């Protein structure tokens, strides 16, 4: 099978190329795709690579690999408050295995339809299984959420529950007897890893409300909150965070699969949840309260002037917990 | 070294992030980069992956790998008549080898400055050496060159000389005794592979003159001209091409390193030259003649109504020559 047959058979299909509300001026099939950006809008772009057996188990179902690859990339758009529009796929494969490709494309297409993002181009090459996806989204120039906008006194919030995907990686996926069709607890954790839900709607709601500082949690809460602190600190104003460990949103499934201490550790350090962490001035607390009451977001702490991340007793929680190390 | 130190040490540097004329609204360091596109302009995007020992020799100098990776991606912008603006880099590395990274970044930076394109984001991951680069460029909505615009009777032109990079791969690079500092012939072929020259200025000149059909030659002339024929053919109007084999632009270096027959074969089938192949109506011939006289472009044939690619005697030249097969 040539590269061109492969693209025609699996990727240049309406279920991937005619998705969402943003047609491209020119899609798959030329040297470049061509995009038009609406007036007063900016293009948000992010590229992510997933390597087999580093970022996902190589033996996982191809459909799950495809879905998850697009979901984790789209999560970066959610963290900017952007609306997904277009993506490109650079797929490196050891061989053109037709059933693997069909399943991979199925998962990719499912995610593309879920998030309203269409495939506009890519590159398929022979080599060790590696997936790079660049997502493009549209965002209003006046409503962007940056890592560098946290201020002393801001509340710190997270969406959803934390630690589930890490628990799936530690406890569920290594046990081949368990599967997505197992008990509800196992199924929930399994899904949290393989079908992360980019918080697109929430991201846009937050940006509209005036929240201007957010990140998605891919490396773990401590690591990603650390990125916010680092990006927002200034020479004359160092920043830190105080976290109420008892407030961390932890799912019943996670507690039942581990214990309270382990669950807290995973919630602080586990990556792959793709929930949002954001900060907001206390003046926004009232406007955010409906989302808190609905359980969509949880207030977990505050931005302080003391460098580091501490618990309510002032004890550093960086010493005992650390995030994902890439190298 | 963490991923973040690696990015700070080698990639988040002015020699990569402050290049060219198109500032990004937001560059490296957040969930997404943010771009603004000028009115009446479109964004041209293309992603390319290079896998070690598939698309380049893994043991090549890191500086050459970096330069070439960006050059071959930018070539897709040249083929659209677009001006390079921004690129993202998804770099997968077996280990964070500091001297390799420094040399790779040096080559990348050299190419970025050469082509006026700035680094706005990326992803660094651990795994088998793989480089995906997405380039973004700006193009006037009224001056795009597509593969699908060839017409019966059009002249077919190519830029530069063909087959040099393939000769380098076949004859020069496998001989470790030879190097870029060898005889001028060897140095020329070596450079043609490792420092391909995206035809950016020519691409824009052609688009301005009204040329509306182009492709860059990455898989070989026959394969890439075949893409033009396939994209431009319609049910009621099949297309083919007649090529004057004696007109193919072949460098002295290529002839001296091979012989006439081998040189012609490499010119027809060798990829990696990143020259442009384009078609133009005969009415543009006069406007194109200064480029022909300057040796920048060469008229090699015509678009015909007979499917296939034939020589001046009407003999098919697809039977004996085929392009690069990706799988």
From TrEMBL, chains A, B:
It comes from the Bacteria. One of its GO terms (molecular function) is thiamine-phosphate kinase activity. Mg(2+) 4 binds at residues 31, 46, 76. It catalyses: thiamine phosphate + ATP = thiamine diphosphate + ADP. It is an enzyme of class 2 (transferase). Reaction mechanism of ThiL seems to utilize a direct, inline transfer of the gamma-phosphate of ATP to TMP rather than a phosphorylated enzyme intermediate. This is Thiamine-monophosphate kinase.
């Amino acid at each position: 099978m040539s590269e061109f047959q492969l693209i025609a058979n699996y990727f240049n299909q309406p279920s991937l190329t005619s998705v969402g509300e943003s047609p491209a001026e020119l899609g798959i099939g030329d040297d470049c795709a061509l995009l038009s950006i609406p007036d007063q809008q900016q293009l948000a772009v992010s590229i992510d690579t997933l390597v087999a057996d580093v970022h996902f188990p190589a033996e996982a179902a191809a459909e799950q690999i495809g879905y998850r690859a697009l979901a984790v990339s789209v999560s970066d758009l959610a963290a900017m408050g952007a609306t997904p529009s277009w993506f490109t796929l650079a797929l490196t494969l050891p061989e053109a295995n037709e059933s693997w490709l069909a399943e991979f494309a199925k998962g990719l297409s499912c995610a593309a339809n879920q998030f309203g993002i269409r495939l506009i181009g890519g590159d398929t090459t022979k080599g060790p299984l590696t997936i790079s996806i660049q997502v493009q989204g549209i965002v209003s120039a006046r409503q962007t959420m940056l890592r560098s906008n946290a201020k002393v006194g801001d509340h710190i919030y997270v969406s959803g529950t934390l630690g589930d995907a890490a628990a799936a990686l530690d406890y569920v996926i290594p046990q081949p007897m368990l599967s997505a069709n197992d008990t509800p607890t196992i199924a929930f954790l399994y899904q949290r890893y393989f079908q992360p839900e980019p918080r697109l709607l929430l991201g846009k709601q937050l940006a509209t409300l005036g929240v201007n500082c957010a990140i998605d949690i891919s490396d773990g809460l401590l690591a990603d909150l650390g990125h916010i602190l680092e990006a927002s600190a200034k020479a004359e104003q160092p920043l830190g965070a105080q976290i109420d460990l008892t407030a961390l949103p932890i799912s019943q499934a996670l507690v039942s699969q581990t214990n309270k201490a382990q669950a807290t550790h995973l919630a602080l350090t586990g990556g792959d949840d793709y929930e949002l962490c954001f900060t907001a001035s206390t003046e926004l607390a009232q406007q955010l309260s409906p989302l808190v009451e609905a359980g969509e977001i949880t207030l977990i702490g505050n931005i302080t002037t003391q460098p580091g991340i501490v618990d309510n007793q002032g004890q550093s929680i960086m010493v005992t917990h650390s995030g994902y190390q890439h190298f």
